[in-house]
User: Fold Kynureninase from Herbaspirillum robiniae.
Amino acid sequence: MTTRQDCITLDQQDPLAACRDKFALPAGEIYLDGNSLGAMPRHVVARMQEVMEKEWGQGLIRSWNDAGWIDLPRRVAARVARLVGAAPNELMVGDSTSVNLYKALVAAVRLRPGRKVILSERGNFPTDLYIAQSVAEMFNLEIRYVDSTPEDVLAALDDSVAVLMLTHVNYRSGRIYPMHEITKRAHDAGALVVWDLAHSAGAVEVALNDANVDMAVGCGYKYLNGGPGAPAFVFVAERHHKEMRQPLSGWHGHARPFAFTLGYEAAGGIESMQCGTPPLLSMLALESALQVFDGIEMRVLRAKSVALTELFIRLVDEKLAPYGFGLASPRDAQVRGSQVSLTHEQGYAIVQALIARGIVGDFRMPDILRFGFTPLYVGYADVYDTVQAIAEIMHSGEWNQEKFITKKAVT
Ligand SMILES: *Cc1c(COP(=O)(O)O)cnc(C)c1O
Assistant:
């Protein structure tokens, strides 16, 4: 049996233990929802105070030049690029994941004229499928939905597929697709691949260029801790820059935005993926937040993430066997992201009872209890305390109360 003391010892040996102090988490709280909304790095408060008072309050319009606002998307992009194995000139920050996916999908479809299919999986995050449906309608394409295993995806590749669109780490199960192999097989079939890194960036190792990926998008407010509604990012491999055409031809993607000419002329390169004026305040917060990754290798983060999820599963096996939980995430750590999902009929109420105890996970329909382990601010004793709390909630029937059973608007 694993003891709490074993977990405290692991915390004492953890090379990332000191990172926790960089985050402004509520005292005593165990936050296991960084895969939905990352925690706030403390130093962002002072930086935003400075931004508000000096750059916006006093600098006003001058700050576009004097505070370097105009180069901000590129600066932030360089930080994100390092975390996902991209070159700085292949990644742009701005817009939301949904909007970036729209731009990338249209650009990819246009690079494969004559092909009729967008291939994706049924279990993909809904917004990804909704965006694909709109693109399919506009370009008169068909969406081919397959089941989630890599084998199902590979079996559905043929010469009618224009674009394969997949989410690298599944939001419900946390399962990781083999990015290198799937990308290669899609290329062998003549298709392009667009990967969604929403649950990957900042949590698992991603090597976009090593895997020869064509395009990718990802989220700023999950493991990158950029704050609610933080700008997202889009990656396009340099080999596609010359030919690509994205549909949202706004002035920030123009070659000379301040020439105010009549016709659109793409900036060329990744700059063309920009559209309109970015949400500066959010982007400045994201830039500041990303400093917590300075000097940290993704390899080290991933090692701790794996250790945390392995520990969680081991403790669930040891302590929760009598209570009817299932494991919805892979047991094999190699194909598991930074989350573990359990299933239980009373999942919603159990999550609410945990939140009432200051342990924040989330619930996904119909029966998934989702626990995200952000290696920057979650420790081994936190994992122990979480499983112990679930055992107590189940043993006492604490979950079985009206206030925990009634669903709120945002789960
Ligand atoms: C979180 C998430 C999104 C979020 O998209 P928004 O446009 O930021 O709302 C998109 N796709 C996946 C796979 C996600 O996990």
Q: What stands out?
A: Residues 46-293 form a domain with the Aspartate Aminotransferase; domain 2 fold (CATH 3.40.640.10). The chain has a mean pLDDT of 97.
